[in-house]
Amino acid sequence: MQSFTHYFLHFGFPIVIAYLFFRDEWKKTYLILLATMLVDLDHLLATPIFDANRCSVGFHYLHSYYAICVYFLLLLLKRPFRIIGIGLLFHMFTDLIDCAFIYRNCRESLIDTSVQVVFDFISTMMGM
Ligand SMILES: [Zn+2]
């Protein structure tokens, strides 16, 4: 379920965004949205490069909260920067959903991370 959600959000849902909001140039928009996945190249700077129980958001350089602020600023610019901003923010949202799966399966792996605080708050609010 986690993998399906992850790949659908990374590859499938950008088509929906491109077609609904940028219909005049939806194919070009879709390619730009896919290209924003290059943001995951920052994983190459981490040791180990891949860790199934590590939450990307708030950990990698291009997934940091400072970077996310910059991605919000991109929304204020014209195309293609706005589309890049949408792609990057949607990427962060997708990764955050992965973090929610990690949190549900193994809370210990998120101890002392900034997202743990957010998920603890949400769980408390939902009475979980
Ligand atoms: Zn990522």
Can you walk me through this structure?
The protein is built from five helices and no strands. It has one domain. α2 packs across α4 and α3 packs antiparallel against α4. It has about 130 residues and is mainly alpha-helical. The structure holds zinc ion. Zinc ion binds near residues 56 and 91.
Topology summary:
Blueprint: H1 2-21, H2 26-35, H3 65-74, H4 81-105, H5 114-125
Helix pairs in contact: 1-2, 1-4, 2-4, 3-4
The structure holds zinc ion (ZN).
Distinct ligands, ions and cofactors found in the model: zinc ion
The domain tally reads 1
Proportion of beta-strand residues: under 5%
Largest sheet properties: none
Question: What general outline do the C-alpha atoms trace?
Answer: globular
Pick out its properties:
128 residues, mainly alpha, 0% strand
Describe the structure concisely:
Helices cover 60% and strands 0% of the residues. It is mostly helical and 128 residues long. It is globular.
